[in-house]
Each structure stands twice: as structure tokens, then as C-alpha cells.
């Protein structure tokens, strides 16, 4: 096997076998990664030009009933500072965001029982009433088929639910016994069927992860055909049992971004905050490897630092307006521009 021919094949056919993906992930050299990067960047530019879409992220609750072993907001972390925004606070974040040019709002939060279907549907309807030109994305965990139907009927356009790892045995190492990787994958297919533009995704370099696991993640995406995919490096959180594991590598994360871009030319692929956290130019590097979305934070400043899923998260002290300015400069320096369109999947 030969990485340059695998890269060429990815570029032209958008597919690779499990064996090819494993080989690529295990053996790619610096020069080959540069080939891969250029192919991914060209593919993204052929679809999106030099446009980077923005999504305004509103972190609505740090309260979570789940206990994912890697996450700082896990239920059993007594040191996590818990907060929940009121519907009014969420709407005022959107108001601020709209004025700054955001046309997608992402409501993300832990699995917090306060946010019943009734409450979330109410907020979604009000956002869509006030801003009919905006998309609403939800990222509120596993809620089940009926809940997804109600949220979609209320007007939500998109839903993010990372599959975390496609390998069920690996999934079981990262989660408590009460959670099932098979159920998570099932809910992703339900989200798509319900009509949502659906986002899957996974952490890179999570504890016990192998190249085989990552190849399976890529093949899972091929099967699901999501409209969006969020990936970022695993970053240890001091209050979790994974505190002493090392963080995911920058190079591996960039390699995976580029492979995902080649396998899914039109996918909406964010350069994530986690990527920006492990390297000062992480998000720019992500864009240069085929990412085409950034998600600045619109959450109220007083709660920013409390949405701590991993340590040292960036931008916890910056107003949304400041992040937009900062990101505009950053993307311009590498030849891109931030646009305010909704940025739907086509
Ligand atoms: N490091 C990196 N990403 C994490 N996530 C949760 N905990 C961590 C961590 N320690 C990711 C998961 C989750 C998303 C909201 O954040 O993939 O789906
Ligand atoms: Fe938040 Fe740069 S993006 S300060």
C-alpha cells in the first residue's frame, strides 16, 4: 500500500477501504500529510470558495444527568459549577448574536431535565418567530425519537450528536454502563430520518483509541452520511478519571479533518474550539486542512468558564463581538473570509 495513491483515490472517488484508512493513519509522513492537506483544501475551496460559515454557540446548561468519563460536566463531578440559562437569557444571546451577523444559533447543553420538549420547543419557536431568516441547531444529547420529532416540528433545523466512537467496545470504555454506543448510533439515524441536518463526530486521541477505531469512525460517517461532522482532540479534564491521559495530537486531528473533507466534499466541518485550545493557530490550521465552519461563543460572559468540558478552553473571557473580530482577522490572514449566510448543506 502507498499513501500517495490512497490520497489520490480519496480525492477522486471519496472512498477508501478500512485497510487503506488504517494504513494511512498509521504511516502518513509529513510530506504525505502536505499532499493530503492540499487535496482537502482544494476540495473545500471547490465547494465553498473562500467562505467560512459562523455559528453562534449558546451553552444553555452545564447541568447533565450523564456521566461520560472524559467530560468535566459529568454528573459525578462535584467541582463543576452548574448553571442554566433561562429562556429569556437564551433569547437575549440570540438577539446579540443577530446584531453581530449570526444567522445560525446553536443551543448546546448537558442533558438537563429542565429543558423538557415543551421548554425547548418554546424557545425554538420564539427564535424562529423573531429571526425567520436564521437556522436553529440543537445539541442537547440523546432525547429519543418522539422528542426529536417535536423539536423538528417546532422549527429546529439541525441537530448535533457526536457518536464519540463508532467502536462499541471503545464506546464502553469511555462511558458508564448505562450508556450504549449502539443506541447513540441509532438516534443519529433517527435524527436524519426526522428531517434534521444532522451532525455526528468524535474525539481524536481519546483514551484507548486505536487507528482501527478511527478508521471505523470514518466508515461510520460514510454510512450515516451526516450533513455536519464535529471533531476535535481529546483534552483531559482535571476532575475526571482520564486526567492523566495525554491530549489528542494536532497532526492526527488535522489528518482526520482532511480525510473527512475528501470523503465528504460538501460536509459542514468546523474547526473546533478544542482544536484552537491545543494550538494557538489550531483553527486556522483546521481551515487549511478542509474545515469550513467556526463556532464562536455567544454565552453570557459570567457563565463562560463554567461550561468546562475540558481544561484550558479558549475564549472564556472574550465577548462574542471580540471573538468575531479576532476570527475575522485570523481567517483573513490565511486568505478566507467569514460570511453571515445561514450556510445550509446543499
Ligand atoms: N476533550 C475533548 N472533547 C470533549 N468532549 C467532551 N469532553 C471532552 C474532552 N475532555 C466533546 C465530546 C462531546 C462534545 C460536546 O465535546 O465529543 O460530544
Ligand atoms: Fe475568541 Fe479569538 S476567537 S478571542
- The named CATH superfamily: Aldolase class I
Q: How many structural domains in the coordinates?
A: 1
What global shape is seen? globular
Radius of gyration: 19 Å
Give the structural class: alpha/beta
CATH architecture: Alpha-Beta Barrel
How much helical structure, as a percent, in the residues?
Answer: 40-55%
Approximate strand percentage = 5-15%
Average pLDDT, all residues: 98
Counted beta strands:
9
Number of helices: 14
Termini separation comes to: 34 Å
pLDDT < 50 runs, ≥5 residues: none
For this structure, what is the CATH class? Alpha Beta
Sheet with the most strands? 6 strands, parallel
Ligand inventory:
5'-deoxyadenosine, FE2/S2 (inorganic) cluster
CATH topology tier name:
TIM Barrel
Order of helices and strands: HHHEEHEHEHEHHEHEHHHEHHE
Task: Please outline what is shown here.
The chain has a single domain, classed as Aldolase class I (TIM Barrel, Alpha-Beta Barrel), CATH 3.20.20.70.
List the SSEs and their pairings.
Layout: H1 3-13, H2 18-27, H3 30-48, E1 51-54, E2 56-61, H4 87-99, E3 104-109, H5 117-130, E4 135-139, H6 145-153, E5 158-160, H7 168-174, H8 181-194, E6 197-204, H9 211-224, E7 228-233, H10 250-263, H11 273-278, H12 282-288, E8 293-294, H13 301-304, H14 320-333, E9 337-339
Parallel strand pairs: 1-8, 1-9, 2-3, 3-4, 4-5, 5-6, 6-7
Helix pairs in contact: 1-3, 2-9, 3-10, 4-5, 5-6, 6-8
How would you describe this protein?
The protein has a single domain (18-339), classed as Aldolase class I (TIM Barrel, Alpha-Beta Barrel). The protein has 14 helices and 9 strands. The strands form 2 sheets. It has a 6-stranded parallel β-sheet with strand order 2-3-4-5-6-7. It is of the alpha/beta class and 346 residues long. The radius of gyration is 19 Å and the shape is globular. It has helices spanning 3-13, 18-27, 30-48, 87-99, 117-130, 145-153, 168-174, 181-194, 211-224, 250-263, 273-278, 282-288, 301-304, 320-333, and strands at 51-54, 56-61, 104-109, 135-139, 158-160, 197-204, 228-233, 293-294, 337-339. Bound molecules: 5'-deoxyadenosine and FE2/S2 (inorganic) cluster (FES). 5'-deoxyadenosine is lined by residues 70-71, 162, 164, 203, 232, 234-235, 237, 274, 309-310. The site of 5'-deoxyadenosine has 12 residues, from loops.
Amino acid at each position: 500500500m502507498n499513501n500517495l495513491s490512497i490520497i489520490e483515490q480519496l480525492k477522486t472517488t471519496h472512498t477508501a477501504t478500512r485497510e487503506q484508512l488504517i494504513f494511512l493513519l498509521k504511516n502518513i509522513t509529513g510530506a504525505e500529510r502536505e499532499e493530503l492537506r492540499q487535496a482537502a483544501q482544494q476540495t473545500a475551496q471547490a465547494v465553498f470558495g473562500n467562505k467560512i460559515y459562523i455559528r453562534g454557540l449558546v451553552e444553555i446548561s452545564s447541568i447533565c444527568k450523564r456521566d461520560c468519563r472524559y467530560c468535566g460536566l459529568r454528573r459525578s463531578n462535584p467541582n463543576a459549577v452548574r448553571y442554566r440559562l433561562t429562556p429569556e437569557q437564551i433569547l437575549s444571546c440570540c438577539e446579540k448574536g443577530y446584531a453581530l451577523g449570526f444567522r445560525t444559533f446553536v443551543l448546546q447543553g448537558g442533558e438537563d431535565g429542565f429543558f423538557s420538549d415543551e421548554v425547548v420547543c418554546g424557545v425554538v419557536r420564539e427564535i424562529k418567530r423573531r429571526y425567520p431568516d436564521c437556522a436553529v441547531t440543537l445539541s442537547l444529547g440523546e432525547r429519543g425519537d418522539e422528542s426529536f420529532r417535536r423539536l423538528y416540528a417546532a422549527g429546529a433545523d439541525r441537530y448535533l450528536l457526536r457518536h464519540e466512537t463508532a467502536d462499541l467496545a471503545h464506546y464502553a470504555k469511555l462511558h458508564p454502563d448505562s450508556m450504549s454506543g449502539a443506541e447513540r448510533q441509532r438516534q443519529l439515524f433517527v435524527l436524519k430520518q426526522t428531517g434534521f441536518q444532522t451532525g455526528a463526530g468524535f474525539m481524536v486521541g481519546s483514551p484507548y483509541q486505536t487507528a482501527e477505531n478511527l478508521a471505523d469512525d470514518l466508515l461510520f460517517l460514510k454510512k450515516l452520511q451526516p450533513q455536519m461532522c464535529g471533531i476535535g482532540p481529546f483534552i483531559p479534564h482535571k476532575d475526571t478519571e482520564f486526567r492523566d491521559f495525554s491530549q489528542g495530537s494536532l497532526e492526527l486531528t488535522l489528518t482526520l479533518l482532511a480525510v473527512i473533507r475528501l470523503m465528504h466534499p460538501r460536509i459542514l466541518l468546523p474547526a473546533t474550539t478544542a482544536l484552537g485550545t491545543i494550538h494557538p493557530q489550531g483553527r486556522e490550521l483546521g481551515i487549511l486542512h478542509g474545515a469550513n465552519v467556526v463556532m464562536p461563543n455567544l454565552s453570557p460572559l459570567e457563565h463562560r468558564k463554567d461550561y468546562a468540558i475540558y481544561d484550558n478552553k479558549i475564549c472564556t473571557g472574550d465577548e462574542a463581538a471580540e471573538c468575531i473580530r479576532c476570527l475575522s482577522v485570523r481567517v483573513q490572514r490565511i486568505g478566507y473570509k467569514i460570511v453571515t449566510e445561514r450556510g445550509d448543506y446543499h
